[in-house]
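<instruction>
Derive structure tokens from the sequence

<record> Sequence and structure tokens follow
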Amino acid sequence: MNLSPKALSIERDFQNARSKANYASFPEFARRYVKHNKDGVVLANTALLEMAVGEAELKEQKAQQWTQSASLDDTPEAIANSPLIKSHTIRDAVEKLESVLGRGTEEHQEYAAIVLARAALATDAPDRLQRVAHYLQNIQLPPARIPMGYNFALVICGLTVKGMTLEEEGRISEAIVSYDNIGVLVGSNPNERSDELNSWTEHALYRASMLKLRQGDHLAAIRSFRTYHNMALQWPSQFRLSRRATVYRHFSAALSSALRSQTSYSVNGSTDDQSQFYAADLSVEIAQIHAYWEDALYAVTPFPKANEKNWRVLVMIEQIVDDRKLIGQGNDADKRALVETIYRASQKTFQSPRILRFLFFALVEMGQYDEAVLALKSYLDLAEINLKVRSTGVNEVLTHEQRVRQDVESDYDVTTVMVEGSRLYGKELENPTEALKCAERALVNIRQYLQGEDTQELLFNAYRFQGVAYSLLGSQAHEPEKRPSLFAKAIESFEKAIEASPESFDGHYHLALQLSEMREISKAVAAVKQSLSLNPSHIPSWHLLALLLTSQKDYERAANICSVGLKESEWDFPQTDGFSASQLEGEEYLAFRITQAALHDQIHGPESALEPQEALFVLYTKVFAADPSSFGESLYDIQNVRRRDQSDIEQSGPSSTVTGRPRAGSILSVRSRSGASDIGQNLNSNGSNLDIPKKNYASSINSVGSSGSKKRSKLIPPAAAAAANTAGGKTLQNLPQAIQRPTGKSVLRIARANKVLATLWLMSASIFRRLDRMEEALKAIEEAERIDASNPDVWYQLGLLYTAQGDHETASISYSKALALAPYHVACLTRVGRSYLEAGSVDMAENALENTTKAQGWNSPEAWFYLGKVFETSERLSRAKECFWYALDLEQSRPVREFTEALPRYLF
């Protein structure tokens, strides 16, 4: 049929209006089209029926106040549908189209049948499904020849209507086939774009994904979700965001399920479709879907009204946090991005305890301890309010889903936060008083509210952290009458921890460490052996056993234990590269090696002790080199997520990789095994050769013994140099502004690094001093002072140096500086008391030494010995005898390094 140019132009504009659902223009277009094309009556009435159905649907939705937001709560078993329209509202349009069907072309008749079927499905007529089947019975869907333009959208409409009809008839598998055909057709015709095409395509892909989940086929559902997502990237940004949020919610859960099962499939050598999903790929995909989910949900989620909970936000954040645990901790940028995600969620909720709990744990993991304490306090305040509400009988037993919807925390969750709060206060903030309060509150919760639940791990950690808090308080006590009771309570707590979890090695380790501090050596040996029987690779336990043997003066066995224990570590550098284990394990390994060096000194003397020193400096640079995972882009950062085609994620074989380069330092990056850091290779050139120290030393130490003072040149500390070199020259100055503030974790690590490095230099100084190589000893002390000028041991060692040289006046100045930095420095106070005694100031000596032995010098044999000398001088022989015997007992059980200085109180 040949149409005039005018008719062709009108038809083109008419179809364009239909593709946009511009109903207001339909009547005029229909009139003009029929005027210029007498055979176009079918097409015109088809469009008028579309208009009637569309307007009736909009009217019905408005009457019932139905919106797309109803889809936010969709599940595979319950999918929200637009309300049906009354059949009489479109009866005239249907009858008019049916009356003229015979006057149109075959093509127009087929498309009219599709619209009639769509109209029948939209009504509430009892025979609606039969009428749909009647209209579509003679139409091939999909057709052999795919049309273009709006007719293509009608084909997609027909397939969608067919699928929905099959779905309502219970023929789910056939419905899915119809929906999947739509995905194939639309994907094969990327140039076809229209509003109506988007509408029907979205509808079909949405239902296909949900139906596959209903059938339990998660892998097929993931593929449909990916197809939906890839199509959504081409849709208008505000198009059906509620349904997108729902898709991403179920998509994220399906991906998490696939990631959890991926390992078992790969281990079993599966060759089915599951083997097409790889952990690294799924990790990236999950992070991306989290970003789209958050964007979509927040676009349709207002701030809650009074007494209203944004439970959908809580569901999302819980899923993101759970997925984060599944994927892994990631790098520093990942941790920061997670914190920012939770902060954004807090802006869509109001005083949510669940959000505060997630925020607390994320801040602790990130190392932002000051903010974590604020989150902890806020959370516990809200938990206290919840407890009061429950005491009134309002709070019944709730399921997990009900708790999420009502934003009510379980007693188990509250107790978990209290236990972690105790660890935070004790380990990171060195506040044993608050640590003890949190641990005791946790134990009260367990006894009162968690009876009958599986609380083994909670109970174990609560008692363990309670014991450490008591131990710290006892060590720091200045009232000697309090210390025994605090230590006894620590022992009791550790024993209860072991009772709660006998197979946990760390309970036995903590007990052994406490017994060691109390000089109950034989009991400590038995406890640490029990720890090693449960975990033979635990370096601190081997370390403690070695120190216990040195306290028994069995140096040869202690040396053998050092050799055996160090071989158990992943930081045994001849076997690994140093990055296969955590940095914390590296620090434990280095501490053990330092003890081994001290033991070598004890056995073979200072001349031989120089040999392991350089190796310790090399090891230090590897342990405290910057962690590669500290740098790189975040896998989770919404602003930086690469919005890409999800079909890139699914790979065809084991050799496939994720499209795009893995981010440096992220959980996907592959760490090089060629070495831990360039710093270790260049250490000698930096002047760490102990026999040839550096020529450029700071002059502040020298100024103690001379009137002149030179302006020193500030050298880069090895720890900082290691960080700079390993990170490829990155510094805080050239990092993005948003992440310039260092975390509490990084500050503490730098402090530990400086303290360890200063300790190494002071060990070298001690060796040189005992070898009478005073110039080299002085240079080593200067280097230690340059690294950590606030370390009182630096000034104490300088005092010992000047004392060995007979310069007692300058030595006294050095000791005074040490005491100014640490008023309770035991070795310094003992030296000062000894100086008073030698100068004949018996009363001053007694005051200094008695205060020392009552406080933190309670276990110092030197302090007790010189106090005994004071009593002997003043002819109080009975007191002197007691002090001498106690000093002898302490000396006979003294290890080569103090237990609590060499070993960690908290293991993780």
Notes: Residues 570 and 581 are 6 Å apart (CA to CA). Confidence is low (pLDDT under 50) at residues 263-272, 574-580, 642-699, 706-739. The two ends are 82 Å apart (CA to CA). The longest helix spans residues 241-268.
